[in-house]
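Cross-check.
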Amino acid sequence: MRWAPWLAAALVVVSLASQTPTGAAPTPSSETAKKGAAAKPAANDKIVKITKTEEQWKKQLTPEQYRVLRESGTERAFTGKYWDNHAAGIYKCAACGLDLFDSKTKFESGTGWPSFWTVIPGHVEEHRDTSLGMLRVEVLCARCGGHLGHVFDDGPEPTGLRYCINSVSLAFDAKK
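Predicted model, tokenized:
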């Protein structure tokens, strides 16, 4: 069956994402964050969940950022400002400023979206996404629950993962 290797890899990703370091609290569901629950510590106990009303998000974000971050949209390939960025620095959540990816883990995937082979531990959440009639793993900001993109099992070593992220979901802090 063609789906078996992909499904097995997705289950490994979900399994790894659900593991927490010794003594750390389990990560609350990102769905909880989207539904307006009270602030709770995330996986690494340093990240406090934030929630805002949809009206507050609409005032803070551009229409395109709102469509992608809050409504799980996708920007067109090769149109985002970071797909071809090669500067050193940290990629942050465009909605809340949480550090998400180090530029040292960015690679050329040829897909037209910024791609990374790993995340800053504890700063993203992953969950099952069947929205297009197929099984994918959605990547969300661990602090605000914003949609970032998806993770696939066709990336380079050492992880074999490709975090395919929308540029509009990111802000970039160049290394000085």
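The first helix runs from residue 3 to 18. The first strand starts at residue 89 and ends at 93. Passed to J.P. for a second look.
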